[in-house]
Amino acid sequence: MRVKHLLLIAILGLTAACSSNKEVIDENLSEAELYQQAQADLDNSSYTSAVNKLKALESRYPFGRYADQAQLELIYANYKNSEPEAAKSAAERFIRLHPQHPNVDYAYYLKGLTSFDQDRGLLARFLPLDMTKRDPGAARDSYNEFAQLTSRFPNSRYAPDAKQRMIYLRNLLASYEIHVADYYLSRQAYVAAANRGRYVVENFQETPSVGDGLAVMVESYQKLHLDELAATSLETLKLNYPDHPSLVDGEFQPKQTESDGRGWLSKATLGLIETETPLPPGETRANQDVVKQFQDARDEMPRELLPKDENGDPIVPEGPKEAEKDRSWFSYMTFGLFD
C-alpha cells in the first residue's frame, strides 16, 4: 500500500508542478509586443506558448491590426502542437468570420492538412503500417477539404500541393474499398463484395485499384453463377489490365475457394442467417451436440477398459441416439410424454 500511496503522491506532485509552471502572460504587453513574442515562440517551436499568446492577443485586442493574422497563426500553432481538433475548429471559425479574407485559402489548406496528418500518429511515422487498412474517416475528410480549396481557389499557391495530396488520398480510399471487398469474399458474402468492386470501378477511375475492383466483380459473379456479368467483367479486365495478378496465362484465378456448403442467403448476410438442414421432429441442436460428445468419448475409450460379456467380448455402451432410434413419430411430436 505504501508504494501505491507514494505513486499517487508523485502523480499529484507532478500535476501540481505542471499547473504551477503554467505561463503567465504580462497584462501590460502591447499588441505588437504580444504578437512579436508569439512569433518568436513559433520560430523556436514552442507551440504551446505560442497558442497561449495568440489566444491572449485575440481576446485582448479583438479589433487590433494583428487580430486576423493572430487567428491564422493560431490554426498553424494548434496544428504543429498536435491538436487537430483545435486546429480544425480555429480554421472553421476563421472561414466563417472572414470568408472574403485574402488569406482564407490558407485556412482551407491547413484544415485539409490537419485531417491529412490526423491518422498518421507517432507509430505510423516510425512503423511500416498499411494506411489503406485503417479507418478512412480522416482521409475522406481531408480529400473533401482539399477539394473545397482547389474548387474555390484554383489559382491559390496551395492548390498544387493540395492536388497532389488528393491523388494520394484517392488511391488510399480506393485501396481501402478493395480490402473491404476482399473481406466480404473471405466471408463468402459475394453480393456485398460485388457491390464494393463495382463502387471502386465507378467512382475511383484512374486509380491502381480499378483492376482489383474488376477482379472482385469477376470472382463474385462467378460464385453467384451470374455468368453473363462475370464474362463481361472478365473481358473488361483482360482488355484494360492484361497483366493483373488474377490473370495467369489469360485465365482468371480466384482469390478465395469455397470451403463449405453454405447457402446463398447465409453468404449474402455474412452468416447472420444460416440455412441448415431441418431437424427431425423432437430433435434439437443441443441434443445432437450431446450425442456427438458421447460418441467421440466412446470411440476414444480403450477396449481393455470396457466390460466383457460371457464370451469375453467388450460390451460397447449404447448412446442416446441408438437408445431412442425405435421411437415413433408420435413420441417425437409429444416429446415422449405419452411413451
Automatic annotation (TrEMBL):
Membrane topology reported for the UniProt record: Lipid-anchor
GO terms of biological process kind: Gram-negative-bacterium-type cell outer membrane assembly; protein insertion into membrane
Entry keyword annotation includes Membrane: yes
Subcellular location: Cell outer membrane
Keyword Lyase: no
Record text on subunit structure and interactions: Part of the Bam complex.
Residue intervals of the Outer membrane lipoprotein BamD-like domain: 30-233
Pfam families tied to this protein: YfiO
Taxonomy, superkingdom: Bacteria
Main location: membrane
Disordered as annotated region, ranges: 294-323
PANTHER family: OUTER MEMBRANE PROTEIN ASSEMBLY FACTOR BAMD (PTHR37423:SF1), SOLUBLE LYTIC MUREIN TRANSGLYCOSYLASE-RELATED (PTHR37423)
One annotated Gene Ontology cellular component of this protein: Bam protein complex
Protein name: Outer membrane protein assembly factor BamD
Family note: Belongs to the BamD family.
Role summary: Part of the outer membrane protein assembly complex, which is involved in assembly and insertion of beta-barrel proteins into the outer membrane.
Composition bias type Basic and acidic residues, residue spans: 295-311
Keywords: Cell outer membrane, Lipoprotein, Membrane, Palmitate, Signal
Annotated CDD domains: BamD
